[in-house]
What we know:
By secondary structure, this protein is an alpha+beta fold. It has helices spanning 17-25, 45-49; strands at 4-10, 32-38. The protein has two helices and two strands; from the N terminus they run E-H-E-H. It has a two-stranded parallel ribbon.
Amino acid sequence: MSKISVIVPVFNVENYIAKCLDSLINQTLDNIEIIVVNDGSTDNSQKIIS
């Protein structure tokens, strides 16, 4: 089975990123990688994804 990569761009989304990541983590696919790319957020997004 192929590996699935999901790239999540992040820029000032502290109100939404936790729900987004929870949804990705709890999905039913096997062999998945989640790549989160913070593009210089000035809110608390970095603290949430760390």
